[in-house]
Design brief:
Blueprint: H1 22-39, E1 43-48, H2 54-60, E2 69-74, E3 80-83, H3 90-93, E4 101-104, H4 108-119, E5 125-130, H5 137-147, E6 151-155, H6 157-165, H7 169-194, H8 199-212, E7 217-222, E8 231-232, E9 244-252, E10 255-263, H9 269-284, H10 291-299, E11 306-307, E12 314-318, E13 325-330, E14 342-350, E15 356-366, E16 369-375
Parallel strand pairs: 1-5, 3-4, 5-6
Antiparallel strand pairs: 1-2, 2-3, 7-8, 7-9, 9-10, 11-14, 12-13, 12-14, 14-15, 15-16
Length: 390
């Protein structure tokens, strides 16, 4: 389920201590430093860019808007951020983070070589790298060139990604608020379709409603033909579609909520099968449940319909500061649901002609099972989401 990235980030991204207090970041930083000690890394370089910055935001709250940015974390001492942009832009950049030391990135190789030279007095530098998998080739080569005279790189994404998967109580509040906004967007989409709006007008109504409710970013895909797959809203065409399949995602305070929905005036066979399959997965969702367990629960309810192509490769994934966090609950994998994790689970059925449907739910997994945070309209177990943050 791929969403189109916006050219420019929208909405407020300055650090708001009322939403994410300094104590939250201090606890994260302490956990990161413990992981560094366990891996033998001298320091950690955290990478992010405007399209994917979950790791960087987790540690610093910083959201790069102009280009790549890096945070340098040592086992002791202050954190440093190197951000794209000139010296005159650092005053604005500092508003995005709790970190006080925010510097221009400049020449990445020279900047990091200077930092590593200061560290090498204590021996060779073992540099942990987080977010390297999303780094473009040029900055990666610059990092590798900078470290080669002082030590080497340790890839520790998997170990540190595990920290992000376990959501704190404050993170859960933000995710619940994102889910509330997602419900507002879905309700607006449904109302517009009920009033005979075309797919484009309905998507724009949902987008406006989400921004009015406090979303930082909104992404919507919708069918361009009856029962067609969700696609980007391009051009001025505004045809009525039935059923309309949609993928909606909203971001609040850096945290994503996303879902699949089918808007139809009738309960078609595909929609009933997709809903039943999703309900089966929700009954299986508990700590330790594997992607195979969820797949089997889904498969029992789909026949005689086929898997919808939109969801045939995976039954879900983690979600939070990134739209798609680990694990990917793929059909050929044995990824497991973990206590403290938040996930999207999705199902879809395809029949003949326009008889197609996609549905999903966001869940939080606890020690006793799972809680549905967001069910789309018409899905089993729909309930009111939490009220807005005060």
């Amino acid at each position: 389920m791929r969403m189109r990235n916006t050219a420019l980030l929208t909405g407020p991204y300055d650090w708001d201590a009322a939403l994410l207090p300094l104590a939250e970041f201090e606890a994260r930083l302490a956990a990161v430093r413990r992981a560094l000690a366990e891996t033998g890394a001298t320091a950690l370089l955290v990478h992010g860019h405007s399209m994917e910055h979950g790791a960087l935001a987790y540690v610093t709250g910083f959201v790069p808007k102009l280009g790549p940015a890096f945070a340098l974390v040592q086992r002791e001492g202050p954190v440093r951020i190197f951000a794209s942009g000139g010296p005159g832009m650092m005053r604005s950049a500092k508003l995005l983070t709790w970190v006080e030391d925010v510097r221009p990135l400049g020449n990445l190789r020279n900047t990091l070589s200077e930092c590593f030279g200061d560290m090498v007095r204590d021996g060779r530098v073992a540099l942990g790298l987080w977010g390297g998998r999303t780094m473009a080739q040029r900055p990666y080569v610059a990092v590798a060139s900078a470290i080669q005279s002082f030590g080497g790189i340790i890839e520790i994404d998997d170990k540190l990604d595990a920290l992000r998967r376990s959501k704190s109580p404050r993170e859960m509040e933000l995710l619940r608020e994102a889910c509330r906004i997602l419900s507002v967007a879905c309700d607006a989409l449904e109302r517009a379709i009920a009033e005979d709006s075309g797919a484009r007008s309905a998507a724009l109504a949902a987008e406006r409603a989400a921004f009015a409710a406090g979303a930082q970013d909104v992404r919507i895909l919708a069918s361009a033909r009856d029962g067609g797959p969700p696609l980007p809203i391009d051009g001025s065409s505004d045809i009525r579609v039935a059923p309309l399949l949609a993928c909606l995602a909203v971001r609040f305070s850096g945290y994503w909520a996303a879902g699949l929905a089918t808007v139809s005036g009738t309960q078609g066979g595909a929609l009933a099968r997709a809903e039943a399959a999703l309900a089966g997965m929700l009954r299986e969702a508990r700590p330790g449940a594997t992607s195979s367990d969820l797949l089997r629960a889904e498969e029992r309810h789909l026949p005689p319909y086929k898997f919808h192509p939109l969801v045939e490769n995976a039954v879900g994934n983690g979600i939070g500061l990134s739209f798609e966090e680990s694990p990917n609950l793929g059909r050929e994998e044995e990824a497991r649901l973990e206590e403290g994790g938040v996930y999207t689970l999705h199902s879809g059925a395809m029949g003949k002609g326009s008889d197609s449907a996609v549905v999903s739910a966001m869940i939080a997994v606890s020690g006793t099972g799972s809680e549905v945070l967001w069910p789309a309209a018409g899905q089993p177990g729909k309930k009111e989401n939490s009220k807005g943050l005060r």
